[in-house]
Amino acid sequence: MEHLTKSQLILLVLLVSFVTSMVTGIMTVALLSEGAGENPIQTIQRVIEKSANPPPAADSPAVSDQDNNIVRIVENVSPAVVSIVAAKDVSVIENYYLTPFGDILADYGIQRRQVGAGSGFFVSGDGMIVTNKHVVQDQSASYTIILKSGKNVGAKVLALDPIKDIAVLKVEDLPAGGYPFIHLGDSSGLKVGQTVIAIGNALGEFQNTVSVGVISGLSRTITASGGFSGPEVLAQAIQTDAAINPGNSGGPLLDLSGRAIGINSAVAQGAENIGFAMPIDSVKKAIEDVKSFGKIRYPYLGVRYVIINPAVKESRKLPVDYGALVTASEGELAVLSNSPAKKAGIQQGDIILEFSGKKIDQNNALADLIADKKIGDKVSLKILREGKEISLEATLEEMP
């Protein structure tokens, strides 16, 4: 290389450059030939199209026929469900003073304040409403109905059920065309596991709250507290796991036909999803009594008694483990004076074994059997007296 002339060096550089160009050209042709069946521009365009068009959204979750039915029922009945607010004059401290001797003196005034809230629902277009007795039991309070539209109307308590947690009201303002109302169903044929819908003014704040569940039990007997007059025994109650919260009391329990089968009444404290409703058949009777007599009437027999079970039999040394033992409470008579029982010849110490042919026991309480009858009905009584069975007949009268 050292002995190359200048001309030879130039020729050598030109030759290397030529060879390099040839090799590069051959490689380029080979690479393009491998992709001859695929247009690079088309490939890039497809990539851009795939990025610009995301995959179609997943279909919305399917809504079952039952869900659609529940939505339809709620839409139809909600205008007939109302909130009931109780208000009364209460004494309040307006000013207070501290005396030089450390005593506190106060000026008291009167203010009208809300003292309670619950739910109810229209059962007729003329403004008749049913609710729980404990919602409207304070006779010193006034009651306002809040419609779903938010309008407030006054209401008058027509009747309080003397035995069951039922009350009937009527609004004072009747619009043209009347009010929407809920049709009443039949609670005698209910089944455990049946789907139900509860609607009410939850916590006295959340109007027309809806919950769905099933009937968990039937013919429950419970002692409910929190009423204006203290604890109350509720018999023949419907148990449900549909959420029933304070404030829901008096709202409807509905079946899947949209008919009311109960009135939401109580919830088990310290437990979840255990609520109770009064069966609607009791409400039907109350409504008819109010329309016909202006009050809710019941027949009565006129005895005080203890239901006999194995424990009572053992403790009192009785010959049977069922029936109703006629016995006096402290300071009270076992058989009321001038009562149907007195007229029929029932005596203290008698055991009423059967009422109108039905055996009396823990599941068939005497009070429930009497309540199923009408005023003026004649009933047969099987009595155990001093070891002998005798038959008597009584004519039921209106409870005084």
General description of the model:
The protein is an alpha+beta fold and 400 residues long. It has three domains: 74-171, Trypsin-like serine proteases (Thrombin, subunit H); 195-293, Thrombin, subunit H, CATH 2.40.10.10; 299-398, PDZ domain (Pdz3 Domain, Roll). It contains seven helices and 20 strands. It has helices at residues 6-34, 40-52, 65-77, 280-293, 310-316, 340-344, 366-371, and strands at residues 81-98, 104-122, 128-131, 142-146, 152-160, 167-171, 195-202, 206-224, 232-240, 252-254, 260-267, 275-279, 299-300, 305-307, 324-326, 351-355, 358-359, 378-385, 388-395, 397-398. Strands 1-2-3-6-5-4 form a six-stranded antiparallel beta barrel. Strands 7-8-9-12-11-10 form a six-stranded antiparallel beta barrel. A hairpin with a 5-residue loop joins strand 10 (252-254) and strand 11 (260-267). The chain is globular, with a radius of gyration of 40 Å. Mean pLDDT is 80; it is low at 23-53. This is PDZ domain-containing protein.
DSSP summary: helix tally: 7
Give start-end ranges of low-pLDDT stretches: 23-53
Q: Overall mean pLDDT score?
A: 80
Instruction: Tell me the strand percentage band.
Output: 35-45%
CATH domain class of the largest domain: Mainly Beta
Rg over C-alpha atoms, rounded to the nearest angstrom: 40 Å
Helix/strand/pairing category: alpha+beta
- The largest beta-sheet arranges its strands as 1-2-3-6-5-4
Helical coverage, percent range: 10-25%
Number of E-type strands: 20
Spatial shape: globular
Annotated CATH architecture of the largest domain? Roll
For the largest beta-sheet, the strand count, sense and barrel status come to: 6 strands, antiparallel, barrel
N-to-C span: 140 Å
Q: Might you state the CATH topology name of the largest domain?
A: Pdz3 Domain
Fourth-tier CATH superfamily name of the largest domain: PDZ domain
Number of domains: 3
The H-and-E topology, N to C, reads as HHHEEEEEEEEEEEEHEEHEHEEHEEE
